[in-house]
Amino acid sequence: MRRVPQGKSRCVTPAWVWAAVALLLALPARADVWTFVDAQGMSHFATARLDDSYELFLRGSDSFSAGNNFARGALNLIGEPMVNEEARRGTVAQSAASLRLLTYFDISPNYKAVKHLLREASATHGIDYELLQALIATESGFDSHAVSPKGAVGLMQLIPPTAARYGVKADKNTPIEKKLTDPRTNIRAGSSYFRDLMKMFPGQL
Questions:
Q1: How far is CA 205 from the centre of its chain?
Q2: Would you say the pTM of this structure is higher than 0.70?
């Protein structure tokens, strides 16, 4: 656990903590999120406990404030004071369990393999890098071959008709579904789609 800074000294917030905050604030208000880290160090996320290996990552709430409270808890762990000590102890217990899992941003080979693509997409479309991290973590756990029961494919979980609208075309040898397993193709189309959603619903995503 990180030490609480003394006096007026300030600690530098690691980038993955900001990514954690972005992830938590991006979650649907009522969604429980479950996760486990496999033998290869990969993190997997789901909105239900698929088997006994999954641990509760974040409990859903009837209001969006749950995400904000948890984000504040994340920052409290690196030195921000809380007025209510009892609340602090509860928040630290919850945050310690969850933030331990968020270190996959540092150790995940799947994430490391695509982070340069996220930076390109962030610069091209004006989307925060940390938000792209959070979206992909919650959508696919950085598994480029992930396929949902509804047929959404790849890192940003695009369905083929949406991908086609953003320039992903099948050819005689490769269907759209296969092309969407390519990280560059998926991130390019997915970030374009998300940029348009942000324009359509300003301040709501």
A1: 14
A2: no
**43 vs 24: CA distance, rounded Å:** 15
Read off the tokens for 89.
């102890």
pLDDT score for 196: 92
- Give the integer Cα–Cα distance in Å for 145 and 67: 29
Q: Strand 43-46: give its sheet, edge to edge.
A: 43-46, 33-37, 55-58
pLDDT digits (tens, 9 = 90+) for 28-86: 444 566 777 777 656 666 667 888 888 776 565 433 333 333 333 333 333 334 444 44
Under CATH, which architecture does the 108-200 domain have?
Orthogonal Bundle (1.10)
Q: Tell me where in the chain the CATH 1.10.530.10 domain(s) lie.
A: 108-200
Identify each DSSP E strand in 10-75 by its residue range.
33-37, 43-46, 55-58
Would you state the structure tokens that stand for residue 95, as one six-digit string? 């945050």
